[in-house]
Amino acid sequence: MKKQINVAAIVDKLPGADRPGTESKFTGPAPDEAKRLVASVLSGGREAILELAEMIRDANGTGEKNYKPGYLLHAIALRVGDKGRDKERLVFTEALASLLGGANPPPGAQEYLLRELQCAGGPEVVKTIGGLLEKPGIWEHAVNALVAIETGAGEQLRKALVRARGRRRLAILQALGSLRDAPSTATLASATEDKDENIRLAAIRGLARIATPACVQPVVKTAAKAKSWEKIQANKAALLLAENLAASGSTDKARETCNLLINANEEEDDAYVREAAERIISGL
Amino acid sequence: MNRQASGTTRRRFLKTSVAAMASVSIVRPHVLGGPRHVPPSETLGGALIGVGGRGPGTYNDLSRKHKLNVVKLAECDVKWVGKADNKKRYTDFRRVLERKDIDVVAIATPPHWHALISIAAMEAGKDVVSEKPMTRFIAEGRAVADAEKRYGRVYQVGTYGRFGKQGDAGARARRKLMKSGLLKDCKGVLIMHRGYKVKQWSGLVNTRPQQVPDWLDWDMYQGPCAMKPFHRHRFGGTHRGYWDYDGGGLGDMGQHFLDPVTWEYGLDHTSPSEITPYAPPAHPEAVGMWGWVELKYANGFTIVLESREWGKRYDRKKPRDVSVNDLSPGDRKKLAEMPDPEPLLGFGEAVKARKPAGGNSEAAHRTVTIMHLANIAIRMGRKINFDPDTEQIVGDEEANRLVNQPMRAPWHL
């Protein structure tokens, strides 16, 4: 049974900002004192963590009443992320996740909790975070947290992509590429035909990272028809794809990618691209 | 989990394929990608991205320090909302890099843009001088180094301490000794308590959001970082105090202090493997105080960074030099027969010769990685172990998440 503790009193023991009452810097507590304060909260278990988290009202500072609990919560995230503390980490992350998705705490506080889960969260909170991918104001932080956690993130992002539009769709497509999410290959290939240049660029970058033979045609096709900035980025994607194919043993596909890229860059100004492709071929 | 950025573990090195030498007087330098010599009379097209602070100095160094014949064709800055003409002045660096008449780019933006713009410039066929610190986190540095090699471009970080160091006979001897591979159990300890400006370049912890000035593109300024409300302290020099953009005084000044060290002690192709910090718990947003960080390499050599602005002094090890006396007589003889260190190429010479500059991206990356590892250890408040080959933190997933951090779309490595 966890002991009853006074979380507000623990928060009050933290030293204040250097010039109380004004926007100022922070010298922080002595490490041993910080350890004691963190251990005190953890000794109160889930209830103490919830009480502390609910004291946070905004993600981006609004005076000492807000930043002190935020600072202490972050110190706990760091402590439970240390080796051999997975049980405490699970209590911590599941407590934070339980506060996400509703009307309370306010969106700014939920943003802050998401950032802490980006530090310390694992697969146990992925589903909850996935449910925030449509929530105005915090979906972008949810994307970041999922990319950081990785395990299980692809499924959540794929689900959310179906209804995503605009910048949210771009962020999710980019995240799927960052995760090298192979089940998204067809979706990314289709997105290379999108009317939005940023969507097309996120798609070819993702395909270059997934780097299966099925990724070759959509990437090289984009490189062949793109102009200006998109051309520069498509050339990069094709070179990266060839490197990754070569590294995974698909040397024929790597060579094919390079040769198609060379043919798609015939102008004098493109000599450096052709030479980059030739260097890859010479290393096969 | 593997947090490498590019998705490839291959290390590519510049190859010396022969490029045509004909028509250099009428063909722009960027057209000829391979090794070649640029005639001294040839004029290069230049651009400056990030015009505040060090910007003009960094750009002017192209001609003053690097002796390049360069004409400025474009400048770019996010502060020019409503004033850019997209011919000479830009707010979006991508429009600058699309221009095929630009050969060399000087980058002096805040640090969170250094890697992305350096990479993009090399992808566009440009050579690059970028202000320090080279990067914001470790995977960015690996991506810059990969880009330099992939595209056969020339990169130089904007710090030159190693160039001065190579004139010091003692430093040359130490480099030769450390690079020889003969020193199996190095007992060297280097304690550095330079001016890290710890308090001066730390962040505010209790700010209130402010109105974005109408002359500033705040979304573009934030770039790859998670979007945060505008506050004057996050902009214009004091940005150094926020993890979103830099690593405080250590992250910002460390590359100056450590650039000569990594050359002198032969650490250009490796990184520390054990990093032990002494600091209070870090704030998640604002860079704060720290006492010292001990960084030990696999060969035993140890660097200690000591702030002397917070907490107790470092007392775990005493300073100790490395010397040929650490070798057996037989190994000393072997060392004497080895070649001396090759002189470093300045950026201008490297551009003309199409060879890596002395402060090339691999060397600069290994230097800035020291600060990144120190800051990760400070932020974690615990010892971390780093694999210098895979460039991953071992056995600490939370710390490893700072090696390659998510970026806000559309920005990515």
What does this structure look like?
The complex is a heterodimer of chains A (284) and B (413). In chain A, helix 8 (139-149) packs parallel to helix 10 (166-178) and helix 12 (197-210) packs antiparallel against helix 13. Chain A is built from 16 helices and no strands. Chain A folds into two domains: 7-180 and 187-211, Leucine-rich Repeat Variant; 212-284, no CATH class. The model of chain A has no long low-confidence stretch (mean pLDDT 95). Chain A has helices at residues 7-13, 31-43, 45-54, 64-80, 86-97, 107-120, 126-130, 139-149, 153-161, 166-178, 185-191, 197-210, 216-225, 228-247, 251-263, 271-282. Chain A has 284 residues and is mainly alpha-helical. Chain B is α/β, with parallel strands linked by helices. Residues 6-27 and 31-37 of chain B have low confidence and may be disordered. In chain B, the strands form two sheets. A six-stranded parallel beta sheet of chain B has the order 3-2-1-4-5-6, with helices on both faces. A six-stranded mixed beta sheet of chain B has the order 7-10-9-8-11-12. The two termini of chain B are 18 Å apart. Chain B folds into two domains: 29-162 and 348-353, NAD(P)-binding Rossmann-like Domain (Rossmann fold, 3-Layer(aba) Sandwich), CATH 3.40.50.720; 168-202 and 243-339 and 361-400, Dihydrodipicolinate Reductase, domain 2 (2-Layer Sandwich). The chains are: A mainly alpha (284), B alpha/beta (413). Chains A and B meet through helix 2, helix 4, helix 6, helix 8 and helix 10 of A and helix 2 and helix 12 of B.
Note poorly predicted spans of chain A: none
Helical coverage of chain A, percent range = 55-70%
What proportion of the residues of chain B is helical, as a percent range? 25-40%
CATH class of the largest domain in chain B: Alpha Beta
Q: Please give the CATH architecture of the largest domain in chain B.
A: 2-Layer Sandwich
Q: Approximately how much beta-strand content do the residues of chain A carry?
A: under 5%
Quantity of strands of chain A, as a count: 0
* Shape by Cα distribution of chain B: globular
Radius of gyration of chain B: 21 Å
